[in-house]
Automatic annotation (TrEMBL):
PANTHER family associated with the record: BLL7424 PROTEIN, DUF1501 DOMAIN-CONTAINING PROTEIN
Ranges that cross the membrane: none
Parts forming coiled coils: none
Protein name, UniProt field: DUF1501 domain-containing protein
Pfam families: DUF1501
Length: 435
């Protein structure tokens, strides 16, 4: 066999003999893939060699991503006096003169913590392009893949000595690190009813067998390092060490939402989004910097009202309980919570009782992390068709988030071909949002 007799151990668990005659290619193959099958295959090769610190106000971000684009008129910007308003009635909130729709009764009780931007404007109504825009702050460009905000936070605020990944995506095809490289890609959690895959070795790999594998891996990596100072090889070494630290770290219990009392799990909701919000709280509490929780189904071209009502029955308790728990655990001041989708929905109701794509005035909701709660920023007109006060552009939102996190929005990154790109594209901080 080209890799020598060491494969007998790999297959049956007995490290008896192995050949000194491995080729250079054999060293690479053994050293870099020996553990791939049982460790974090998608994530472990993505870990940073270095992370940069920065002065910060908020320490972490939880992004509640409403995939498809939620209707602002049926959630946070009701229009009861317009034919465009739809069937849902407005209700009072904890903040005088601020109303939500009746679909959000629990969030209404937390309105004093929320800053609702009702005047977001964008130029994109195509799903993929708008999702890219609202994740990166940049419009898509064919020659450049920009990093998502989660990747930027992982790079700017992440600690290389921290055992957990600093960017976690829950149940969604999250945008990644772009030209920053796979180092800053997210760990994606897909099944919230089961433990995170590969936190433990397979049952047939005993602790003793694992240690023998690691011994062999270190030996082979050392041999290969004598031949080359290849950067990719160094990346793999760091990645394996990080993955092993994660497997052995007590912090991995943050992923185990089964530890929570049944009353807490029920408060969030017996559904994937509720469980995702609970996981986000646990991860932030453990020190993770950025968690994105994904709720799909908001592209309501047909049957908007039935579908939005169902989605809000999931959203309302989960979002409200997340705010409640963050406050009770004294985490809200250091955790920036962002609720948004790629755009809003048309004020006009179409012939299928649906609402179509709309970017000329939609809502984004912020809480915690230095945000001044209990207020509304901007306004749309009575029909919801135009922004009439304080338009907020997407780069302005990103500049504000950077300010709250102590990140310089004008800091330059460089693409692989040397092109300089700032973190934020000419945005201005929305000072009214600052607490």
């Amino acid at each position: 066999m080209p890799l020598g007799q060491w494969t007998q151990e790999y297959c049956c668990g007995c490290l008896e003999t192995w050949s000194e005659g491995l080729s250079r290619r054999g060293f690479i193959k053994v050293g870099l893939s020996g553990l791939i099958g049982m460790l974090f295959a998608d994530w472990l090769v993505q870990q940073p060699l270095q992370a940069q610190g920065a002065a910060k106000k908020a320490k972490s971000v939880i992004l509640l991503w409403m995939n498809g684009g939620p209707s602002q008129l049926d959630t946070f910007d009701p229009k009861p006096n317009s034919v465009n308003g739809g069937i849902f009635k407005p209700i009072k909130t904890r903040v005088p003169e601020v109303q939500f729709t009746e679909l959000l009764p629990q969030l209404a009780e937390h309105a004093d913590k929320l800053a609702v931007i009702r005047s977001m404007v964008s130029r994109e109504t195509n799903h993929q392009r708008a999702q890219y825009f609202l994740h990166t702050g940049y419009l898509p460009q064919g020659t450049v893949e920009h990093p998502s905000f989660g990747a930027i936070i992982a790079k700017e605020l992440g600690d290389e000595h921290f055992d957990l990944p600093h960017f976690v995506s829950v149940r969604g095809p999250s945008f990644g690190a772009g030209f920053l490289g796979a180092t800053y890609n997210p760990l994606v959690v897909t099944n919230l009813s089961q433990p995170v895959e590969n936190l433990l070795p397979p049952q047939y790999v005993t602790p003793d067998r694992l240690e023998r594998r690691l011994f062999l891996l270190r030996y082979l990596e050392g041999k290969f390092a004598d031949w080359t100072k290849d950067e990719n090889q160094q990346r793999h070494l760091v990645a394996y060490n990080k993955a092993l630290r994660l497997m052995r770290s007590p912090l991995t219990k943050a992923f185990n939402i089964a530890e929570e009392p049944e009353s807490v799990k029920q408060a969030y909701g017996d559904n994937d989004f509720g469980r995702g919000c609970l996981l986000a709280r646990r991860l932030v509490e453990a020190g993770v910097r950025f968690v994105e929780v994904y709720l799909d189904g908001w592209d309501t071209h047909q049957d908007n009202f039935t579908r939005t009502q169902k989605l809000c029955s999931v959203l309302d308790p989960a979002f409200a309980t997340l705010l409640k728990e963050l406050q009770e655990r004294e985490l809200l001041d250091s955790t920036l919570v962002v609720w948004m989708g790629e755009f809003g929905r048309t004020p006009r109701i179409n012939q299928n009782e649906g609402r179509d794509h709309w970017a000329r005035g939609f809502s984004v909701v912020l809480a915690g992390g230095g945000i001044k709660g209990g207020q509304v920023i901007g306004a749309t007109n009575e029909d919801g068709t135009d922004v009439v006060h304080r338009p907020v552009a997407v780069p302005d939102l990103f500049a504000t988030l950077c300010h709250l996190l102590g990140i310089d929005p004008n800091k330059r990154y460089y693409t692989p071909n040397g092109r300089p790109i700032t973190i934020v594209d000419k945005g201005q901080v929305v000072t009214e949002l600052l607490g």
